[in-house]
Amino acid sequence: MMINEPNVTPEPTILSFDNLSIAYDKDKYAVKNVSAEVHKNSITAIMGPSGCGKTTLLRAINRMHELYPNISTEGKINLYGDNIYEMSTIELRRKIGMVFQRPNPFPTMSIYENVIAGYKLNGIHLKRSERDEIVESTLRDVALWEEVKSALHKKGTFLSGGQQQRLCVARALAFKPEVILLDEPTSALDPISTAKIEDLLVDLKKHYTIILVTHNMSQAARISDYSMFMYLGQLIEYEDTKTMFTNPKDSRTEGYLTGKFG
Q1: Taking the model in full, what pTM does it have?
Q2: Which of 11, 13, 100, 226 has its CA 20 to 30 A from that of 36?
Q3: Domain 13-258 sits in which CATH superfamily?
Q4: What is the per-residue pLDDT across 111-137, written as a single tens digit (0 to 9) for each?
C-alpha cells in the first residue's frame, strides 16, 4: 500500500474540536468527547466502521445536524479560534463547503447555474462578468473547464458521475471557503473517476484544508496527511497517516487497519 508522505512541519491549526459530543434523542451519543486539531492546507481522513460517528462528526463542522431538532451538541468547534456556533450559518457555510457521498448537482440547473448556486440561494447579486469569472476559474480549479466549456448551459445531470462530482466540488469552491468537507466522495464512482478526484484533492490542498470521511483505507493512505480513527463515537487515534498505518498505537486501530473488523 502506497502511503502519502505527511508535511514535515505541520501547518498551523485551522479547525479544532473541544470536547465535542453529539447525541440523538438526548442520551444516544453518536460522538463522545472528541478533542483534536486540524492543520491548514492538509488532507485529514476520518475512518472507522459503519456507525462509529465519522459522518456525524463531519456534518457537525458545517452544522448540518441543526436541521434535526432531536440532535443536541455539547462542547465546541473552533475555526481560527472562533466558535462556529456563534456564527451565522450563512457566514459559516461561506467558510466551510460540503460535498456529499453521491454526486448531487441541482437537476433543474445548468452547469453554469450549479457553480454559482450558492450566491443565488443566499441572495448575493453579481454582475455577469463576475459570474462568468467565478464559473470559469472554479471549473478550471477542478479540471472540468475544458470538458464542459461548450456545454455550460446544459443541465449538470448531463455529465458523467465523475464529472458531476467534480461539478459539486466546484460548487463548494465557488464561495472560496477555508475548509472543504467530503463525505465518501468517491464511493459511487468508478476507479478512473476516483483517481481523478483523488488527484484533484491533492492539488486543492495547496489552497484549501480538506477533511474527508472514507471507508477506503487505501485511499486514506494514498492522499491524506493525517488520519483519525473513530470507534463507537470516540476518537481512538489521530496521527499523521504514515505513522498510523505503519505503527498504530491502539490495538483497535490495528485491528481495523488489518481488516479484523470494519
Answers
A1: 0.91
A2: 100
A3: P-loop containing nucleotide triphosphate hydrolases (3.40.50.300)
A4: 999 999 989 888 888 999 999 999 999
